[in-house]
Specification:
The protein is of the alpha/beta class. Helix content is 30%, strand content 19%. It contains twelve helices and 16 strands. β12 and β13 form a beta hairpin. α6 packs antiparallel against α11, α7 crosses α9 and α9 crosses α11. This is Gfo/Idh/MocA family oxidoreductase.
């Protein structure tokens, strides 16, 4: 199969032979509420294996296909699945497009490197499939808009894989903040303590015979193979991701967007430390965001506020009546000098999740959007993209939230999108 073809050409090629699926996206039906969900997993690194394990343990799910550009990952994951589900029949692929052209697959999960997230999800929507996609939502702003447009056009379901969104602690924090217990929140401090290490200055190596390096790169610029640019450590290169910041922003900013829905972003000012070696994503990062009536500060070290030093990741809400600090599993409220972990008089009003993956399955069956749906995920992801652009340009940026453009800055606006490599511009 030629990798120079887009998906439309791909489904027409005689080489598909045994697959034989040339059905147009509009002809795919919706899953009935009583149907079992047939799922395929695309991208089988660490998180992809988590996807496989999570969905394999859901009783109404059948895993029918696995896909990875690395034959070693593919074989290892198939073996693990067979160990969990003796006798299971699962097909394996090196090219995700074979999965998209199977009309018997209802949904996919995507745990590829970040620069592939949007194209695969968009093509899946067009192929009539629902998507559970890993964070960050997309590589750039334009991709997120494309995903949302295509999801709505094809009436699909999407859940972003920020699994902590389903946690009871975040749900309770949202209830406390929305109740007004700490008053009007005017400042939020977010942090993720940096744990990154230098990758040094490794040299080009021969591409492993088990790896389709050209397809791994996909829409990103071509470069010679260096192992440190591939698999897990890809995230420390701006051609593919945005470092720890891009990796963790949505996890902890999620509780802010769920509770106070920041609006009217105006200013973004990022400063950070660069790596000494080959990696070019920020090693550490501080970003100041100015919204309407709200300031959000991101840092790679805990801020100088009570309780932050004991938490490697966290959010600190400052209201005019008190404060609330939280991480994934703990919280502490301070009002008039009194500290507490909960306020019994605040009712439970936020429906609890049945589990992040179960929520996706339920949403697919009911044809209703899940908790961490695409519209929400896109809004949550925008400040992450803009913070990285400010870091790259090394200056404060002014943002027009209504037009979704930087004000008077062509250089910054150019970084809101990236044209894929021609041979991998599949959408």
């Amino acid at each position: 199969m030629s990798v120079h073809t887009n998906r439309r050409d791909f489904v027409k090629m005689a080489g598909l032979g045994a697959l034989g699926f040339t059905i147009l996206p509009s002809l795919y039906g919706k899953a009935a509420a009583s149907d079992r969900l047939r799922i395929a997993h695309i991208g089988l690194g660490g998180m992809g294996n988590n996807h496989m394990k999570w969905f394999a343990n859901l009783p109404e799910v059948d895993i029918v296909a696995l896909c990875d550009v690395d034959e070693l990952h593919l074989g290892e994951t198939k073996q693990k699945l067979e160990g969990m589900k003796p006798g299971i029949k699962v097909d394996t692929y090196g090219d995700f497009r074979h999965i998209l052209d199977r009309k018997d697959i209802d949904a996919i999960t995507v745990a590829t490197p970040d620069h592939w997230h949007a194209q695969i999800a968009t093509l899946a929507f067009q192929a009539g499939k629902d998507v559970y996609g890993e964070k960050p939502l997309s590589y750039c702003m334009k991709e997120g808009k494309m995903m949302l447009k295509q999801m709505n056009k094809h009436d699909r379901i999407f859940q972003m894989g920020n699994q902590i969104h389903a946690g009871d602690n975040f749900h309770r924090v949202v209830e406390i903040i929305k109740s007004g217990a700490i008053g009007n929140v005017h400042t939020v401090r977010l942090w993720k303590k940096s744990t990154t290490k230098e990758l040094g200055s490794p040299t080009v190596q021969a591409i492993p015979k088990t790896l389709n390096w050209d397809m791994w790169l996909g829409p990103a610029p071509y470069t010679d193979y260096i192992p440190e640019k591939c698999h897990f450590t890809y995230r420390y290169f701006l051609d593919y991701s945005g470092g720890e910041f891009a990796d963790f922003w949505c996890h902890i900013a999620d509780v802010v967007y769920s509770s106070i829905q920041p609006k009217g972003l105006k200013k973004i000012n990022a400063r950070g430390e660069a790596y000494a070696g080959i990696a070019d994503a920020p090693k550490t990062l501080d970003v100041d965001y100015e919204f309407d009536g709200l300031k959000i500060f991101w840092s790679s070290i805990p801020p100088n506020v009570p309780g932050a030093a004991d938490r490697g990741i966290g959010a600190f809400f400052e209201g005019d009546k008190g404060t609330l600090i939280c991480d994934y599993n703990t919280r502490e409220i301070t009002i008039n000098g009194e500290k507490m972990t909960d306020i019994a008089t605040i009712p439970v009003t936020n429906p609890r999740s049945p589990g992040h993956q179960q929520n996706f399955v339920d949403a697919v069956k009911s044809r209703t959007q899940p908790e961490s749906n695409l519209a929400y995920a896109r809004e949550l992801t925008v400040p992450m993209h803009l913070g990285l652009i400010s870091y790259r340009l090394k200056r404060e940026l002014t943002w027009n939230a209504d037009k979704e453009k930087f004000v008077g800055d062509k250089e910054a606006n150019k970084l809101l999108s990236r044209k894929p490599r021609k041979k991998w511009d599949l959408v």
